[in-house]
Amino acid sequence: MRFSFVHAADLHLDTPFRGVATHGPLLERFQQSTFQALARIVDVCLRERVTFLLLAGDLFDVKDRSVRARLALRTELARLDRAGIQTFIVHGNHDPLSGDTGTLGLPASVKVFGPRWEDVEVRREGRRLCHVQGVSYPDVEVRENLSARFRRTGEHFSVGLLHANLGGDAGHANYAPCTAADLAAGGLDYWALGHVHTRAEHLLPGGGVAVYPGNPQGRHVHETGERGCVVVDVEDGIARRRFVPVDRVRWHRLDVPLSGVTSLDMLQAVASEVVESRCAQDFDGHAVRLTLAGRGPLHRELARPGARTQLEADLRERLARAHPPVLLESLRDGSRPEVDLEAVRAGGGFLGTLLEEAEALSHDDAALASLWDDEDLTTLGQRLKRLGVDALEAPRPELVAQAGQRGVEQLHEETS
Predict the structure, then answer these.
(1) Most CB atoms within 10 A, among 7, 80, 273, 284?
(2) Which UniProt keyword terms apply here (predicted)?
(3) 118 - beta bridge partners?
(4) Among the listed residues 284, 263, 271, 396, the one whose alpha carbon sits nearest the alpha carbon of residue 17
């Protein structure tokens, strides 16, 4: 039998968007974006005429969910209820069951899984379509491998709905940790996962698949690109998946090339062109982090005290007046001085020797290993780890070569 469903996760309704100014034309657009993403997910369900919607945890941004967020969720799920579309929900670490006040009901077509594993049959016109299994977080921190509770209960297509960290993703708290082998052991056909905000699919031993749809609305500069939900079409036990973007405010990290840019006027124009080329018109807004990149004559100007900050303030004001408006999250200076490294190498002397020695060291495995064994470097690495900063565990030849280039550049700047 053929049927379809939509899988979404990590709505984070009413997220505060702390990186956005508390006033101005962009604030309201950002504040509404998570609600609009939910509405667009429901639009997808109605347009595709799916049988049900799966929401895999973190529907709300905080345990004490706002009244506005709860009302918005009920309004949108009521649209599905009127269309005869079921909804299945599990709660995660941001919105555990302990945060539910119980003062706002949901439509009868909505199934919220509790703290114990449950298996629910989905039927259409009296015929069994599939099984949906799920379990919610009772409170914020769940360290148990919840996937071990899941098991196939029949021959029909089986879905596992779970908020979990598959494979120990370092970018997210290790809640409900599991492995691909753990999921495969459950014998389910489709694992509808939440928690990791980056879209991903994991093919499992035995033929199942585990899917992270990612969050439907980017919330900061580390959540760039299109965001949305997954439409799953099931026929003869095979799940075919389609990603559908639903975000209305999109985040970007863009480089502004400095090659050939000889004035601040040109720099402003180039930056505006870069943003305009990547920020589509059919959005409510955009947010960007710009990095000035490459070698150019403006490097020295940008290195002056306060120069980058003043340029950033001017660009922020200009971009906020664009259509649609663009938030400048930050302007980073990755510019480099105009130094002809080949000429430095050919010229010899101290700078040429420094460059050659660094490049030679980067190709000497024994020397690199000795460098990484330096007691001071080891101590620094240990201190960084205690502060939660990732430290290099092994030699990186390219970093040694880059250090030589940066040293030449700095010395060249000081002597020119």
Answers:
(1) 7
(2) Exonuclease, Hydrolase, Nuclease
(3) 134
(4) 284
pLDDT, one tens digit per residue, over 175-209 is 999 999 999 999 999 999 999 999 999 999 989 99
Q: Give 227's pLDDT tier (boundaries 50, 70, 90).
A: very high
- Write down the pTM of the prediction: 0.83
In this model, does residue 359 exceed pLDDT 90? no
Q: Are residues 64 and 169 in the same domain?
A: yes
Q: Which two tokens stand for residue 293?
A: 């990149």
Rounded-to-integer distance, Cα 124 and Cα 177, Å: 34
pLDDT digits (tens, 9 = 90+) for 88-98: 999 999 999 99
Q: CB neighbours (10 Å) of residue 254?
A: 16
Q: In what order do the strands lie in the sheet with 127-134?
A: 118-124, 127-134, 157-163, 190-194, 209-212, 200-203
Question: What was the pLDDT predicted at 343?
Answer: 64
Do 171 and 196 contact (CB within 8 A), yes or no? yes
> How does pLDDT run across 327-348, given as a tens digit for each residue?
999 999 888 777 656 666 777 7
Residue 20 and residue 138 in one domain = yes
Q: Which two tokens stand for residue 170?
A: 């370092």
| pLDDT score for 370 | 74
Distances (CA, A) of 108 to 3, 80, 111, 113: 21, 11, 8, 13
Give the range among 74-83, 238-247, 366-375, 395-404 with minimum mean pLDDT.
Answer: 395-404
Angle CA 310–410–398, to nearest 5: 105
pLDDT at 27: 82
DSSP-derived 3-state class of residue 308: helix
Per the document, the length of the chain is: 416
Show which of 308, 336, 364 is a domain's final residue.
336
CATH code at 216?
A: 3.60.21.10
CA distances from 259 to 223, 262, 293, 333 (A): 28, 8, 8, 14
Q: Which domain holds residue 259?
A: 249-336
Query: Which secondary structure element, helix H or strand E, spans residue 79, and what is its range?
Result: helix 67-82
Residue whose structure tokens are 């090659």: 259
**Cα-only R_g, the chain:** 26
- Amino acid occupying residue 132: V
DSSP 8-state secondary structure symbol assigned to residue 206:
T
Asked if residues 403 and 358 have their Cβ atoms less than 8 Å apart, the reply is yes
C-beta separation of 245 from 227 below 8 A: yes
